[in-house]
Amino acid sequence: MGNQPIFTNDTIVFGLLMLSLGFIFYTSSIKKGFWKKFYNIVPSLFMAYMVPALFTTLGLIAPEWETTSETGEIIEHSSSLYYMSSRYLLPAALVLMTLSIDIKAVFNLGWKALAMFFTGTIGIVIGGPIAILLVSMVSPETVGGAGPQAVWRGLSTLAGSWIGGGANQTAMLEIYGYDQKLYGGMVFVDIVVANIWMAIILIGVGKTKAIDKWLKSDTSAIEVLKEKVSTYAKKVERIPSLTDLMIIVAIAFGTVSLAHFAAGYLSVYFENFVNGMENQTTKNIFTFLSSQFFWMISLSTIIAILLSFTKAKTYEGAGASKIGSVFIYILVASIGMKMDLRLILDNVGLVAIGVIWMTIHAFLLILVAKLIKAPYFFLSVGSMANVGGAASAPIVAAAFHPSLATVGVLLAVFGYAVGTIAAIGCTILMQLVSVSP
Fold first, then answer.
1. Can you give the pTM of this predicted structure?
2. Cα–Cα 20 to 30 A to 427, which of 133, 225, 297, 360?
3. 284-305 pLDDT, tens digit each
């Protein structure tokens, strides 16, 4: 947490984010001069992420901050915009982007999508211990520590987050008992490194054709899926009436409310079920089942897939996926505001470990993609399904085409499932190579 930003009212901050998105879309629509050249290099989605990050870096806004009361008590504050975006707008976007999906075509994408996802997982598992080894040669104290303050214990939470998500990260914190007073530093590294990597991925989206050409990848299955969705959208395309728009919003948020309602019961049920397990290792593996976010995203996607077999699918012609894209961009902006570039220098050693770790993850993905000629889409979504989970994988997938957002969700669910057990394997390796005092 940092100093109080200039704007603390979420209504004002939200307006600032929307103004920045409006500016980005307006300038990206200019087809000549400086802006055309600029957006030929930098994708608009990356700008939607980076401009709010610059606002945070400049102290205009902040995701979290502290104030001091008249009695000297420190009061913690936080913006609720990311929570709103991830819990309300993300599932709504997934519903609207999935309405027109051809689920058979999704499964026809083939084995390379899963291969790249598991390559990303392996990259995280081996990247942690290798990063510790390399940093220990230069700065042994950075990777040292003993007992609850041992750095490898803290890094175990990064492994949980970068393979699964928040639930897996919390599970690793509980399993290895890292000192919670120091935990904030690990969360910071998680946010900084994962967001920098996401920014690089988004820049790559603008260079997809060139990257796919270098990888010599076969993108035919992806193009078939995009073509099917686009053809169907043109077939049912119409000028949306107010009734159309209200029904689209009803479908989206009605599904979200149902998913939230059911997730509340399912998360509690499975929390009790998991807590009742006698074997601690088994209990830790299935901790993600007690996550309400996991169930909310999964149920929203399942309901949307079922709706794609009904007449609700025709609302794609009235702009369902476009409204979903609006929600996705708002989510991207709210993620961007979590990034304060000034703080990187405050945790140079830990950030260095994270950067090396992520570099190994990226290198392995690129190597395998080159060997099996996997498209950049599979590389980027496979990576973000690990590192970013269900909040980020659909964003990256939708950057290629709105119809592909579902692929990101499906792969992210795999991340939840394997997150804890893979993170435990990674942590064992990190413990073995860590420097003892």
1. 0.73
2. 297
3. 667 667 878 778 878 888 898 8
